[in-house]
Write a structure and sequence with these properties.
Radius of gyration: 20 Å
Number of strands: 11
CATH class of the largest domain: Alpha Beta
Structural class: alpha/beta
Strand order of the largest sheet: 2-1-3-10-4-11
Order of helices and strands: HHEHEHEHEEEHHEHEEHEHHE
CATH superfamily of the largest domain: Periplasmic binding protein-like II
Strand content: 15-25%
Shape: globular
Largest sheet: 6 strands, mixed
Distance between the termini: 11 Å
Number of helices: 11
CATH topology of the largest domain: D-Maltodextrin-Binding Protein, domain 2
Helix content: 25-40%
CATH architecture of the largest domain: 3-Layer(aba) Sandwich
Length: about 290
């Protein structure tokens, strides 16, 4: 309930700004957003924001940054895209990052528990869905996760990558893999053995999976529904995997405690967070087959 209330407050703040109204009082705005210059309608001096975002967000985020810069031309947004696990590790090791936008709650939870997330800045923004895909005219006998054993080869992200973790969890729930405390730890060799020796190509992120399948290097693979936009005509969906099998595929976003940032950069990061929760951003995400989190 707390996160939902924070989300509502942020959306109301953004709508006020975009409508040209007078802005909300400090008491009405949550956490670190209270001193956000966007709420006062001020113009930023030249500054920058560094965003670490899941690979599956890359296309949507590039359009998002262009839209943001039409409003904030003096703020340079640097974006780093990779698997959420890799990005989280980079932040833990001290990489300069202002906003973290992963494809999973797990990595955000880890950073929050480590005290690396700014208090009250976390919001659930998006939902996605796992898909089993092949390339056009592959002739595959696979119809979905349940009969992956019929494939000659499979492209799967590692368990450290959210899409790989969701895939493993779904296979556990289907009874293909044995129960475990953490699906992340199921190795590709264990998956291969459970499928009767099918060759598994372990990929570093979801983009690598989509590329491997679209180019015919592997017969099938698992990606997100949003990835289909960037591979139009090159990927064929065999199954849209139910959230009952994977769990909710949620994308949270939060401001990171970046000790290397000055006050202007921190304010710009809060400003960018507000934009991510705006109606304009929502429209962009919807165009890339994401859903907004309830």
């Amino acid at each position: 309930m707390k996160r939902r209330w924070i989300n509502i407050l942020i959306l109301l703040a953004v709508l006020t700004v975009f409508a040209g109204c007078g802005g909300k009082t400090k008491e009405e705005v949550p956490g670190n957003l209270q001193n956000n210059p966007m709420l006062g309608g001020e113009i930023f001096d030249d500054t920058s924001v560094t965003v670490f975002a899941a690979k599956s967000l890359e296309q949507a985020m590039e359009e998002m940054i262009e839209a943001y810069n039409r409003i904030r031309p003096t703020v340079t947004v640097y974006a780093n895209y990779d698997s959420s696990g890799t990005l989280a590790t980079q932040i833990e090791e001290g990489a300069a990052c202002d906003v973290f936008f992963p494809a999973s709650q797990f990595q955000m939870d880890e950073l929050q528990e480590a005290g690396l997330i700014l208090e009250d800045s976390r919001i659930d923004l998006l939902k996605n869905q796992l898909c089993v895909v092949t390339y056009p005219d592959s002739g595959t006998k696979v119809t979905g996760l349940a009969d992956l054993a019929q494939a000659d080869s499979i492209a799967l992200a590692g368990g450290f990558v959210p899409v790989g973790r969701y895939t493993r969890q779904a296979m556990i729930n289907l009874g293909i893999l044995s129960e475990t405390d953490d699906a992340e730890n199921v190795s590709s060799s264990e998956i291969s053995a459970a499928l009767g020796g099918v060759m598994v190509n372990e990929c570093a992120n979801v983009g690598a999976v989509a590329t491997a399948v679209s180019e015919g290097a592997n017969e099938v693979g698992t990606v997100y529904r949003s990835d289909l936009t960037g591979f139009s005509g090159r990927l064929v969906v065999l199954e849209n995997v139910s959230a009952e099998l994977t769990g909710e595929v949620l994308y949270p976003a939060a401001q990171v405690k970046n000790d290397q940032a000055d006050e202007l950069e921190r304010n710009a990061a809060a400003d960018f967070m507000l934009f991510l929760a705006s109606d304009q951003a929502k429209e962009i995400f919807l165009n890339y087959q994401f859903e907004t989190a309830e």
